[in-house]
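thread: overnight batch results

M.L. [08:02]
morning all. the overnight job finished for the chain we discussed friday. pasting input first so we're all looking at the same thing
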Amino acid sequence: MRSSDHLPNFQVSQFGANAEPFLFDLVKLDGRTDVPRPFLHRHSYYHLLWISEARGKHLLDFETLEVRPRSVFFISPGQMHAWSSDIAPSGYVLNLSAEFFLQIYPRQDDIPFFGIANAHPALYLSGEQHGELQPLLAEIECEFNARDAWGHDAIRSCVLMLLTRLRRLLPERPGDHAAPRHYSLARRFKLLVEQHYLEYRSVKEYADALLVTERRLNEAVRSTTGKTVTALLQERMLLEAKRLLTQSDLDISQVSFRLNLEDPAYFSRFFKKHTGMSPLEFKKTFSGPVY
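M.L. [08:03]
and the structure it wrote out:
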């Protein structure tokens, strides 16, 4: 039986990096026949897609985003995505391992774009903004291809500058002014959700595991993400349901049981309430080739 584990999952960059272990890779999109990838897949590394020219769609964890000239997309490890373009794309792909990120952001909470409150997986640049940042991409490309002494240090510095400049262009997020203690608690909550979302269902279970009150947990999560604990739990459950429905041969009842929901009818009502589609409708819509 085909399961969600059979979704293509690229463990290291496939674009020709020679370094062992894999830390960083760059590919120029111009003239390539293997990009874009129109089928759903995952990466075990961070993936920054810099689009200078392209027109199409990008499906990121079932959210459809427009691909247009001067687009930047941020894909975290484990996220499902696929994209297409009606014209030959130009731009860059930057693949960054977790180890590479730790070298420029010792505290993972400081990583921009990929944090718990990231509400902007796409950034659309003006012509002026794109023109100002393009030389940084060209410099990274030059250092990557030259592989001279201390080239990794130069790449790391340029990537940090690129992310810092892009970070300044992001719209303000709900958690930007959250107290540090709130952000830390919300971060620990999000990690706990990833570990136990099939086991813990109530706010109390998470609060007990984190040794805080339900009120304090809700305050921290709301001030950091703009959402309630319950809403985030529902979102994570729905995301897993969508993955199982589209990337496996499980029927509706089997998906329900896999999610530890013993009543398939309840699961169907829950799913349709939050997506506007029945599980079967969703499965038919998103199974198979995306673009």
